[in-house]
């Protein structure tokens, strides 16, 4: 049986007004279940077939209070208005009073006076109509009923939680007790004049006036639970419950102070009162995001043109992209946190985006005015409205990040704030992240921390904190990164065009400025990335060799050999250049940073991480004379963006050679990125297309690509390093994710095209050709320290058994367990085990390693 898909309809111009559905339109609406239940309850209380009317037991009217319960903006007011509208069409026997707004309820106007006042307004209208003698007599009877109720009303205390003994006198007590009877009499007389059988009283936002909510509830419970009246209220049950709890606390303040009653007892009393006031059987809960995220969406303009979307959660993300180019994704079984959790905010955001002109992809330079206005409008929503769902503390954090405009400081700021908020400095080690200890140091230089570093810290927080507040905070951080990445990418592509046109003029009109910035000339996009999208530990995306002295995904390149190769290229004949050039290009693209050592016993794990503490910018540092170069298979994600700068780290002329050699990787990548484009001979457009096909500019895609790399890790079981590299880069080349653009009626797929060329290149070289550029051993530099640890990852027991007995003290193992807290079957990176052994040596719990 096909599942009925509900429809959510938003109309232009009705962003802030409750929706009023009729007896036909409500049936496939999102609120149909809520409205149907309310109609069913009213039919049960007041059967339209008069032969089925039953008398209440012992003449005590049942509590006929119907409640629409939910957060702000979830459709409660729309349910009330729709219910009244549908009953107007279907039930001519029910008197429908105008909805009461508790905003007018104060110390001088209680809820009963507002209801009686509404009824009296209709009475005055009747007086202005022509009347026969019978109707005149009925109105006179009604006026007497009004007078009696008014007389009894004056004795209701403004503070209903006071005990009856505090009422002014016995006459007032009698009148208060009699108010229920006089109200019943008034309703009977009113219905006779109205020629109706029943009355429906609707009260919206009963919890809005929190200070007087208990008084309102008490008056409704005492005086409006009568046989011909149904009260239908809307509110947030948690807020109403809290208001009642606070009233009880004030009432029993002295008993609480003397310990004669507890807060738990107050809470139990509150819950009992809520059940009595709002019967569970007649509570109607409003839809949540889970209920409407998959609903079909219809947007209607003022000309009644309708635009249909498959689902709410897809429609919103598509509108954001089409109007601003900011990209958000839902994940399997989960809705993106950018989708508002209440209907009011969702409708406002949807219609704001719908009314924007579409993003102009053909703007000549920069975004164009329309594009900038669209982006600014959305960012204003995201920064000022969406962030209200964060806790006050997290909003302060979010505002701090929003205000930070310096890209080179951003990663450092995020890591420091996460360290502070989640006390991460207390986490001495992280089994999956050998770099963890140094990331927790205060000595890290701000511009040498990368997005990859930020990601592993956020992943740790995400894996250890599952509450919704933390999830929202991490989503905000990742979204802000995506926004900044896209903005800085735009600046970089704009500079391709602006630089060509304005270079000459700028040379004449240079503004005096100091040149002491170590990031002078580095694009903001690269400063924000900080040299790497990923921080990997050696055994994550490519299987390590069985030889424990070397991992495959990162390790050490021989800088001297690379220098020789580049010199050979400069001196070789033209027909000999291509293959050597491609090999040099590959080595340059996987190069991350250099390190040096003054001591032959210095450990590589420390060397490879120490660049974060150095004052020089590690990803711009010249590598032409470096002897030891750290390579990383994920380095090309960064290095390909400014490929000229990447090549220039090794040689001033190598990029020019690659640019003019048709067989170079660069020329092949440039051509491949432009194969389906119309750039022609326009070099600037060609470079733009290359950047578009090369640059990761969304953190959700960055994370999704990483998961794809992890899933491919074990698919290649070749012993050959070249084959492993080729399989890795082929996996990256094959990766794709759809955007909300269309290409020939198909969703456009985002792919990283240059990796096809890298993968193809690796098919043409052998292990022998590549091996000469990789240094051995990579575990140590000139030392055999801890050489007995023969694997990249080991369990605790495996590592301990591998250690020769001569190094152990009688209490060494116990001490090791205390500092390491090992899990029996968990494998730890070699670097972490070495760090713990070294600590034991320093503290005299282990004999020094020879």
Q: How is the topology of this model organized?
A:
Layout: E1 7-11, H1 32-45, E2 66-69, H2 76-90, E3 94-96, H3 111-127, H4 133-153, H5 170-194, E4 198-203, H6 213-223, E5 229-235, H7 237-251, H8 253-257, H9 263-277, E6 283-285, H10 289-292, E7 296-300, E8 306-309, H11 312-324, H12 343-355, H13 368-384, H14 392-403, H15 407-422, H16 436-439, H17 451-464, H18 468-508, H19 524-529, E9 554-558, H20 559-571, H21 574-590, E10 591-594, H22 604-609, E11 628-632, H23 636-639, H24 643-648, H25 654-660, H26 665-673, H27 683-694, H28 699-712, H29 721-734, E12 737-743, E13 746-750, H30 754-762, H31 767-771, E14 793-795, H32 796-802, H33 812-820, E15 827-829, H34 830-842
Parallel strand pairs: 1-7, 2-5, 2-6, 3-4, 4-5
Antiparallel strand pairs: 7-8, 9-11, 10-11, 12-13, 14-15
Helix pairs in contact: 1-2, 3-4, 4-5, 7-9, 11-12, 14-18, 15-17, 20-21, 26-27, 26-30, 28-29, 29-30, 33-34
- Helices and strands: which structural class? alpha/beta
CATH architecture of the largest domain: 3-Layer(aba) Sandwich
Rg, rounded, reads: 36 Å
* CATH level-4 homologous superfamily of the largest domain: P-loop containing nucleotide triphosphate hydrolases
**Percentage of residues in strands:** 5-15%
Number of separate helices:
34
The end-to-end span amounts to: 74 Å
The CATH class designation of the largest domain is: Alpha Beta
Strand order of the largest sheet: 3-4-5-2-6
Instruction: Examine the coordinates and then state which fold CATH places here, giving the name of the CATH topology of the largest domain.
Output: Rossmann fold
The major pleated sheet works out as: 5 strands, parallel
Organism: Phocaeicola vulgatus
Protein name: KAP NTPase domain-containing protein
């Amino acid at each position: 049986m096909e599942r009925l898909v509900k429809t959510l309809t938003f109309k232009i111009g009705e962003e802030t007004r409750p929706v009023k559905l009729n007896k036909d339109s409500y049936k496939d609406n999102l609120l149909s279940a809520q409205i149907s239940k309310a109609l069913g309850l009213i039919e049960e209380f007041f059967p339209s077939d008069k032969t089925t009317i039953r008398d209440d037991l012992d003449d005590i009217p049942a509590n006929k209070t119907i409640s629409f319960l939910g957060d702000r903006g979830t459709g409660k007011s729309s349910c009330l208005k729709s219910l009244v509208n549908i009953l107007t069409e279907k039930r001519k026997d029910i008197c429908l009073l105008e909805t009461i707004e508790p905003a007018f309820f104060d110390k001088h106007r209680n809820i009963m006076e507002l209801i009686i006042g509404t009824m009296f307004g209709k009475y005055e209208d009747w007086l202005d109509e022509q009347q026969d003698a019978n109707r005149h007599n009925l109105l006179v009877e009604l006026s007497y009923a009004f007078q009696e109720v008014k007389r009894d009303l004056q004795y209701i205390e403004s503070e209903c939680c006071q005990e009856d003994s505090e009422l002014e006198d016995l006459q007032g007590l009698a009148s208060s007790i009699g108010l229920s009877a006089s109200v019943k009499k008034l309703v009977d007389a009113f219905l006779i004049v109205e020629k109706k059988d029943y009355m429906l009283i609707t009260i919206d936002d009963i919890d809005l006036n929190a200070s007087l909510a208990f008084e309102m509830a008490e008056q409704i419970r005492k005086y409006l639970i009568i046989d011909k009246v149904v009260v239908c209220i809307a509110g947030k049950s948690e807020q109403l419950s809290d208001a009642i709890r606070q009233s009880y606390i004030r009432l029993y303040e002295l008993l609480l102070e003397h310990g004669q009653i507890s807060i738990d007892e107050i809470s139990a009393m509150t819950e009992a009162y809520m059940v009595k006031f709002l019967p569970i059987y007649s509570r109607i809960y409003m839809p949540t995001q889970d209920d409407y995220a998959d609903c079909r969406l219809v947007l209607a303009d003022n000309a009644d043109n309708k635009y249909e979307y498959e689902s709410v959660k897809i429609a919103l993300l598509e509108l954001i992209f089409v109007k601003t180019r900011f990209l958000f994704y839902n994940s399997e079984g989960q809705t993106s946190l950018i989708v508002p959790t209440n209907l009011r905010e969702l409708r406002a955001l949807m219609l704001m985006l719908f009314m924007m002109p579409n993003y102009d992809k053909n703007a000549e330079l920069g975004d164009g005015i329309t594009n900038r206005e669209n982006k600014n409008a959305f960012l204003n929503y995201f920064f000022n409205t969406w962030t209200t769902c964060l806790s006050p503390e997290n909003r302060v954090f979010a505002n701090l990040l929003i205000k930070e405009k310096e890209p080179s400081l951003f990663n450092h700021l995020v890591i420091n704030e996460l360290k502070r908020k989640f006390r991460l400095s207390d986490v001495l080690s992280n089994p999956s992240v050998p770099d963890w200890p140094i990331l927790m140091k205060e000595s890290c230089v701000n511009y040498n921390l990368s997005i990859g570093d930020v990601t592993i810290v956020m992943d740790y927080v995400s894996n250890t904190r599952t509450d919704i507040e933390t999830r929202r905070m991490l989503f905000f951080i990742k979204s802000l990164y995506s926004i900044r990445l896209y903005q800085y990418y735009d600046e970089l592509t704009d500079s391709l065009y602006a630089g060509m046109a304005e270079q000459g003029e700028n040379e004449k009109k240079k503004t005096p400025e100091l040149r002491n910035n170590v990031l002078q000339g580095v694009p903001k996009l690269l400063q924000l990335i900080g040299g790497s999208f990923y921080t990997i530990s050696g055994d994550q995306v490519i299987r390590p060799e069985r030889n424990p002295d070397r991992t495959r995904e990162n390790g050490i390149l021989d800088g001297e050999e690379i220098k020789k190769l580049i010199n050979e290229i400069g001196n070789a004949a033209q027909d000999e250049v291509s293959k050597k050039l491609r090999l040099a290009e590959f080595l340059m693209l996987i190069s991350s940073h250099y390190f040096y050592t003054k001591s032959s016993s210095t450990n590589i794990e420390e060397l490879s991480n120490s660049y974060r503490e150095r004052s020089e910018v590690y990803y711009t540092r010249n590598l032409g004379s470096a002897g030891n170069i750290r390579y990383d298979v994920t380095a090309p994600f960064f290095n390909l963006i400014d490929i000229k700068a990447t090549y220039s780290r090794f040689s001033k002329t190598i990029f020019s050679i690659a640019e003019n050699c048709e067989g170079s990787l660069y020329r092949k990548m440039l051509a491949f990125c432009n194969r389906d484009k119309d750039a022609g001979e326009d070099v600037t457009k060609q470079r733009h297309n290359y950047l578009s096909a090369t640059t990761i500019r969304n953190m959700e895609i960055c994370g999704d690509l990483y998961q794809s790399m992890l899933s491919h890790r074990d698919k290649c079981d070749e012993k050959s390093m070249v084959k492993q590299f080729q399989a890795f880069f082929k996996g990256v080349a094959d990766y794709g994710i759809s955007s909300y653009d269309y290409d020939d009626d198909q969703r456009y797929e985002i792919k990283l095209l240059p990796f096809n060329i890298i993968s193809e290149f690796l098919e043409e070289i052998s292990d022998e050709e590549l091996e000469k550029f990789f240094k051995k051993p990579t575990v140590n530099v000139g030392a055999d320290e801890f050489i007995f640890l023969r694997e990249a990852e080991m369990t605790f027991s495996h590592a301990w058994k591998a250690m020769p007995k001569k190094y152990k003290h009688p209490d060494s193992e116990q001490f090791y367990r205390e500092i390491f807290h090992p899990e029996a079957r968990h494998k730890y990176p070699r670097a972490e085990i070495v760090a713990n052994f070294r600590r034991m040596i320093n503290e005299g719990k282990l004999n020094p390693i020879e």
